[in-house]
Design brief:
The protein is of the alpha/beta class. The chain has a single domain, classed as 3-Layer(aba) Sandwich (Rossmann fold). The protein is 39% helix and 12% strand. Helix 1 runs antiparallel to helix 7 and helix 3 packs antiparallel against helix 7. The longest helix is centred in the N-terminal third of the chain and has 21 residues.
Length: 310
């Protein structure tokens, strides 16, 4: 998507949906309610965006596989604040789900907008995402629209469907914030785009290689080059074989300066795999790594579906 307006976004969101309302009186009421919403009024848009986020959380709790759509808000907020995106930088989430990282990054950047030109920069050349699954692709479009992004730039293709060695300087970004899916596997056609000795079955390891390749080099932008904050499973840090080779490439070519171990069951009930946050930039190689472990709240052993990290 390289241009357009809200009508194009709405058309994209509802393209192909078959949803028939049996009662014409109810349909008339719905149309009147929607017609009464002032989409250009900031207060009403803020209310709608909060309502939409509430709906996404309810979807998470209602379905067993919705965990792939939702990262706990405190984790998202912490990762955005720690990377501190600046206006004028490009921010990417290659596995954006319903857009939590992009929406939070937009909130963070809005505080830096003081002129009309600043808002134009934020709207037109800052946020990018990728989401291959149809339902979250639909949801991220609406989520970002309701957060005030006029024309979300979300690629509906699989972000891993690339030839890694053909990603050049023009394809790189300043900041990557993401929680890529882990525990899944990609088809052989996808693996063919990665180096032969790093064609991992684990999706998270493929995304980590993509992220490393997509960060700007020093001199392209910031002094230290691009920077990233990424959620990864324990296997990324401790597994042998291909995972160890990818980790070696990370610490030799990048500055992996911080690892944060998340509390147990942060992503419960969707997965009990222990997870970590990696913070790195392109100023490498790695010299020292700060390691932090976040304990659960006092008096609790772990998070759960009924008591999540919210």
């Amino acid at each position: 998507m390289n241009g357009g307006d809200r009508r194009d976004v709405i058309a994209t969101v509802f393209k192909g949906l078959q949803n028939r309302m049996q009662n014409d009186y109810l349909l008339c009421d719905v149309i009147n309610k929607v017609n009464g919403i002032h989409f250009n009024a900031s207060d009403e848009m803020h209310t709608l965006s909060r309502l939409y986020e509430t709906m996404l959380r309810e979807m998470r709790d209602a379905a067993g596989d919705s965990g792939e759509f939702y990262t706990p808000r405190p984790v998202v907020r912490f990762m955005v604040e720690a990377t501190n995106p600046r206006l004028g930088e490009t921010i990417l989430d290659p596995a954006c789900g319903t857009g939590g990282f992009l929406a939070e990054a937009m909130r963070h950047l809005e505080a830096q907008c003081h002129r009309v030109e600043d808002r134009a920069t934020l709207q037109n050349s800052t946020l990018q995402g990728g989401e291959a699954k149809p339902l979250p692709y639909l949801l991220v479009q609406m989520n970002l629209l309701l957060h005030g992004l006029e024309y979300p730039r979300i690629d509906p293709r699989n972000s891993l469907d690339v030839e890694l060695n053909k990603i050049g300087d023009r394809d790189r970004v300043d900041v990557i914030l993401t929680n890529p899916p882990f525990g899944g596997e990609e088809e052989r056609g996808i693996l063919g785009g990665f180096p032969q000795d790093m064609q991992a079955a684990e999706t998270a390891l493929l995304f980590l290689q993509l992220i490393m390749r997509k960060l700007k080099r020093p001199g392209q932008g910031a002094e230290n080059g691009g920077r990233a904050a990424v959620v990864v499973p324990n296997g990324t840090l401790f597994a042998d074989g291909i995972a160890a080779r990818i980790k070696e490439a990370l610490v030799k070519g990048f500055n992996l300066h911080t690892i944060v171990r998340l509390p147990e069951d942060v992503f419960s009930p969707y997965t009990d795999i222990p997870a970590n946050l990696l913070f790195f930039d392109r100023s490498g190689p790695t010299q020292d790594i700060w390691f932090y472990q976040i304990p659960p709240p006092e008096g609790r052993k772990k998070y759960s579906k009924t008591k999540p990290m919210d």
